Amino acid sequence: MIDIDQILVALATERPIFHSEADFQHALAWKIHECCPRCRVRLEYHASGIRQRQHIDIWVEDSDEKHAIELKYCTRALKVTSAGERFDVASHAHNRRRYNFIKDIERLEKVVSKDDRIIGHVIFLTNDSAYWTTPKSASTITIDAAFRMHEGRTLTGTLSKAGPGSIRGKEAPIMLRGSYELHWREYGRPVAPGICGQFRFLHLEIAAEH
User: Fold this and answer.
1) Considering only CA atoms, which of 3, 8, 141 is closest in space to residue 67?
2) What residue segments make up the domains of the chain, in order of their start?
3) Whole-angstrom distance, CA of residue 21 vs CA of residue 8
């Protein structure tokens, strides 16, 4: 049995920050390999249930289970030196990243429905507190309100954009079969406490019964 949360905690002690999502993907895949050397680990794997040109970020197989892992690394601008290495990460737009994360849930629900041995995982890593913080006013309607992913929220059902405008290329509603309560965990702190210095992660597991 692979414990993704424990692997992330172990990874955080070595890599509290990453240059990019690809850097995070490679580092996590290698840590899974180190923790589970008998497992077969693949990057950019084409799984049954998704379109031809779509791939799973990390695919892990052992004798009893298969794990389909999708990652998102969405940051607020931060320049820091960690373990002697210089990092300069950029800021990312919230609405597209929220939509893409929930879209990953929808995709993995389709993947796990093909084989009850597959367990899906969506992981969102960020140093931007806007993702995990509850909106100050529930009456404020924004275009991406349905896709918010703050602490304690439950994602379920059909989620659509609200208000005028569009999230370019992300107009289609997302339809979730399951129900997912969101709980953020601390990941790493590559710099002293302050703005953007704390990374947190969100990990949701998608099982075949959804």
Assistant:
1) 3
2) 4-129+180-206
3) 15
| Domain covering 4-129+180-206: architecture | 3-Layer(aba) Sandwich (3.40)
Q: What is the pLDDT of residues 2-42, one digit of tens each?
A: 899 999 999 999 999 999 999 999 999 999 999 999 999 99
Supply the DSSP string of the chain, one letter for each residue.
---HHHHHHHHHHH-S--SSHHHHHHHHHHHHHHH-TTSEEEEEE--TTS-TT--EEEEEE-SS-EEEEEEEEE---EEEEETTEEEEEPP--HHHHHHHHHHHHHHHHHHHTT-TTEEEEEEEEES-TTTTSPPS-TT---TTGGG---TT-EEEEEE---SSS--TT--S-EEEEEEEE--EEE---SSSSSTT---EEEEEEE-TT-
Q: Over the stretch 165-205, which tens digit does the pLDDT of each residue have?
A: 555 655 688 999 999 999 999 998 887 656 678 999 999 99
